[in-house]
Amino acid sequence: MGHALCICSRSSITIDNKRYYFIQKLDEGGFSYVDLVEGAQDGRFYALKRILCHDREGRKEAQTEVEMHRMFNHPNILSLTGHAVMERGGKSEAWLLLPYISKGSLWSVLEKLRDKGSSMPESRILHIFRGICEGLKAIHDKGYAHRDLKPTNVLLEENDKPVLMDLGSMNKARIEVKGSREAMTVQDWAAQRCTISYRAPELFNVESHCIIDEKTDIWSLGCVLYCMMMLEGPYDLVFQKGDSVALAVQNRSPFHSHAASLKDSRRS
């Protein structure tokens, strides 16, 4: 793993003996931050993801994310430019240097369309969807599953080429559950790492003896396709209302209610 050095007032950092200048903050999550940085040598922009590691388990998870990125060399999966660990005050941060894609996420594009009262043409939907499928297939072919596929985890390059990102929830595609304790462990993990409105039904109530596999990604993939067509996820409204997403997912109710309301609006 590379060595990290913070210089002056954090205006510049060094990863793998290359200096990068801090430009601005891009995003912030529960345990991670994303900054825009510029390479001192090549003048290119990069996204620096800083993962806060509070304990040994956190450091292990960050290292797993690094390994997941390194496993793939595919046009529809975000590559890893460099990485390092920063030790500070008894705590550590994992730094992942990633390509910067200025167009942003698929979700940001869909939001703009919704604000304009517009929609995404079918040809564009199919183009993006195919790229997502190809990236997902590459992950599945390696025996892994993404587990948190959603519009905010799909970046779009200028030519609308989708790139899957945020590989921190990835794990082995096939998980054999033996007993109620293992089932609860998987269920608790899914509650923490798999976004609720895109989570597959089998992850809400994990059976005591079952096999969880890459089909969880296929469910999420269908939700992403729905979102591209409707400009909102099939269970986004359920979540926003504070209703039970788990119950709605198991009943598949939003698909029917949304389709009905869409028909009524067209009639009027």
Automatic annotation (TrEMBL):
<protein>
    <recommendedName>
        <fullName>non-specific serine/threonine protein kinase</fullName>
        <ecNumber>2.7.11.1</ecNumber>
    </recommendedName>
</protein>
<dbReference type="Pfam" id="PF00069">
    <property type="entry name" value="Pkinase"/>
</dbReference>
<keyword id="KW-0723">Serine/threonine-protein kinase</keyword>
<keyword id="KW-0808">Transferase</keyword>
<feature type="domain" description="Protein kinase">
    <location>
        <begin position="20"/>
        <end position="268"/>
    </location>
</feature>
<dbReference type="GO" id="GO:0005524">
    <property type="term" value="F:ATP binding"/>
</dbReference>
<keyword id="KW-0067">ATP-binding</keyword>
<dbReference type="GO" id="GO:0005794">
    <property type="term" value="C:Golgi apparatus"/>
</dbReference>
<dbReference type="InterPro" id="IPR008271">
    <property type="entry name" value="Ser/Thr_kinase_AS"/>
</dbReference>
<dbReference type="InterPro" id="IPR052239">
    <property type="entry name" value="Ser/Thr-specific_kinases"/>
</dbReference>
<dbReference type="InterPro" id="IPR011009">
    <property type="entry name" value="Kinase-like_dom_sf"/>
</dbReference>
<dbReference type="InterPro" id="IPR000719">
    <property type="entry name" value="Prot_kinase_dom"/>
</dbReference>
<keyword id="KW-0547">Nucleotide-binding</keyword>
<dbReference type="GO" id="GO:0004674">
    <property type="term" value="F:protein serine/threonine kinase activity"/>
</dbReference>
<keyword id="KW-0418">Kinase</keyword>
